[in-house]
Amino acid sequence: MSLDAAVALRRGTLSLEVALDAEPGEVVAVLGPNGAGKTSLLRALAGLDALETGHLRLDGVVLDDPAAGVFVPPERRRVGVVFQDYLLFTHLSARDNVAFGLRARGLGRHEAARRAEAWLDRVGLADHAGHRPRALSGGQAQRVALARALVTEPHLLLLDEPLAALDAGTRGAVRRDLRRHLDGFAGVTVLVTHDPIDAHALADRVVVVEQGRVVQAGTLTEVTAHPRSRYVAELVGVNLLAGRAAAGTVTLDGGGILTVTDDAPDGPVLVALRPSAVAVHRERPSGSPRNVWAVVVTDVDRHADRIRLRLDGPVPVVAEITTAALAELGVQPGDAAWASVKATEPTVYTA
Questions:
Q1: Is the pLDDT of residue 167 over 90?
Q2: What's the DSSP call for residue 68?
Q3: pLDDT score recorded for residue 105
Q4: Which residue(s) pair with 56 in the sheet?
């Protein structure tokens, strides 16, 4: 049940060119900002949009290959889809929603109902088989949509932001339930999400797509340890700077300079810096920091019990401090201050 896809198509101003492969039982999360092409990728995998060039093979079977004149329509693909808004049929019961795909494939009414009820039991909704979608909670509707996708025994499962419509109190429990079902799924799963928590909890590997292109791929740990775009850096909450390193010094593209450890690679590099590693001072600090520069506070943003300060200067960064530290500093947007970073704090890697 392997997936081998080279998806190339245009939708409006978006030019999508994404290569994607996965092994049986693997869950691949596709992350990216709005408009990156994630949903277009899923539509192509489902057969809702045809490729312009490239190919799509599932278990070695060609589903889409424009050069060879092959296109298998969606209803003939072993593909299950859970849409972001679930798209349950409002006039059908949970049982009939789950049975719909089986009936569309020609299975008899009684056998389709039997299999649908078995799947509703597996997702913990046996008592809700006769309920229509309006009588279900968000979490229950999500599980009905998942059962509807899996009852047809697909070889490829596509999940489009499956937890986005849920409230925060429900999301954690449904995420754990979804993980349990994916653990028992022998096919390939492609999950589109904006949430790194979903990717961490559900996926074996992540693919980051921006402006229709793959900018980074690997395990979540690999991607977050060495972010290669501003989107990924913001996603994981770190500062990302670009420059050129030589002999333990990085000259940033914007003109600032950072002293780093001597084992940093020479040449074009990226520098990842945790906001909590940036110290903020009212006066120029003395002592051990190897990097000290003047800044202007441009924004003060509260995150629960932490404060994020956006600092403009030779090395523009975001610093994270406590509410107590903010009270002691007494800074607000427009104030001058100083920032400092130890040479051991930046993570430097080849661009």
A1: no
A2: G
A3: 86
A4: 5, 64
| 286, 291, 297, 299 alpha-carbon torsion, rounded to 10° | -130
Helix (H) or strand (E) holding 214: strand 213-218
Amino acid (one-letter) located at 196: P
Domains and CATH numbers, the chain: 3-231 (3.40.50.300), 237-350 (2.40.50.100)
Distance CA 61, CA 79 (A): 13
Strands (E) across 50-187 are located at: 53-58, 61-65, 70-71, 79-82, 156-160
> For the range 90-93, what are the long-range contacts, defined as Cβ-Cβ under 8 Å and sequence gap of 24 or more?
90/132, 90/133, 90/134, 91/132, 92/132, 93/129, 93/130, 93/131, 93/132
Strand partners, 57: 4, 62
Mean pLDDT confidence for 56-77: 95
pTM of model > 0.70 = yes
Task: Give the Å distances, CA to CA, from 237 to 102, 273, 327, 339.
Answer: 44, 9, 23, 18
Q: Which tens digit of pLDDT belongs to each residue from 182-219? A: 998 999 999 999 888 899 899 999 999 999 999 999 99
- The half-sphere exposure of 97 on its side-chain side, counting CA atoms within 13 A, is 30
Q: Which DSSP state fits 37?
A: S
